[in-house]
Amino acid sequence: MEWEPNERDAWVSDAQRWITQIKGVLQCKIDLDDQGEIAGIHVVAGLERDPRHIVRDVESLLKARLQLDVYYKKIGVVQVVESPRPDPHVAHGVDREPSVVAAGVTFLPPHAEAPRPVAPPKPAMAPEASEPPAAPVPAVLVAEDAFPRPTCRGVSLLSSDRSVRAEVVLAAGGREAAGVAESAGHADADLNCIARATVEAVGLLLALPVVLHLREIRLDTIGGQATVLAAVDLVESRRTETLLGACALRHNRQQAVVHAVLAALNRRLGLFAVREAEAAD
């Protein structure tokens, strides 16, 4: 069935209105591609909420009301600093409903007319003292990796003729988590166990709305340097993304494995919050 663009995209205005009802959101604009799919969601918000919470609220709202799964990277949030401004109906002597001023953006009611431009006063012979012009309102752009990246606090490896057991302790945001992995003893079993323990520790440390799975860990030589290569699958809903990381094997083999896994994950882990202590205990 072919849809007319206006009929096909009629839900956009409702979705934009719903999103602006989310706490902290001031404005919203949804862009669609030629196929009518969401190409980007642009949100203007204040500073009272974490932008990542706003992104998750937008995702949940669209899923609940429209059954739309939107990739979080398509949702952009810009936070603007609130700045008090003079009341326009007082400044111009016009009896009009006051506008709503929030975060440096002025919203007029739909039935209100925009203020007419006022002619500049004629220059006087002697300059009169006047208030300095208001400073521009700064905008705060959402930056990735606002949360501390996990760091390695310790690695322990216990091996026997039949099995290998690894424990990795990671820390982030003042919290620690330990991941444990075991396997039968075989060549490079220590690499696999340490890498799986690292992935488990990351899951325990961070509140992840995704599933992490170690796809591959191996040693290779790049540029004449022995290097640990790691591939970790990040599974989100029905989408799987493979993240890659590497660490040169200069000193400690065990820590190099941990750092290779974290190198694959750290850039994406900055988008998630540290798990609260009550939830982890």
Written description of the protein model:
The protein is an alpha+beta fold and 281 residues long. It contains seven helices and twelve strands. α5 packs parallel to α6. The longest helix has 17 residues. It is elongated. The chain starts with a helix and ends with a helix. The C terminus is likely disordered.
| Rg over C-alpha atoms, rounded to the nearest angstrom | 27 Å
Structural class: alpha+beta
Q: What share of the residues lie within helices?
A: 25-40%
Largest sheet: 4 strands, mixed
CATH superfamily of the largest domain: ANL, C-terminal domain
Distance between the termini: 53 Å
Shape: elongated
Give the tally of β-strands.
12
Q: What does this entry show, briefly?
A:
The chain has helices spanning 5-8, 11-20, 51-66, 88-91, 189-205, 253-269, 277-280, and strands at residues 25-32, 38-45, 75-80, 100-102, 105-107, 139-141, 151-159, 163-172, 175-184, 211-222, 225-236, 239-248. The chain is of the alpha+beta class and 281 residues long. The protein has a 4-stranded mixed sheet, with helices on one face.
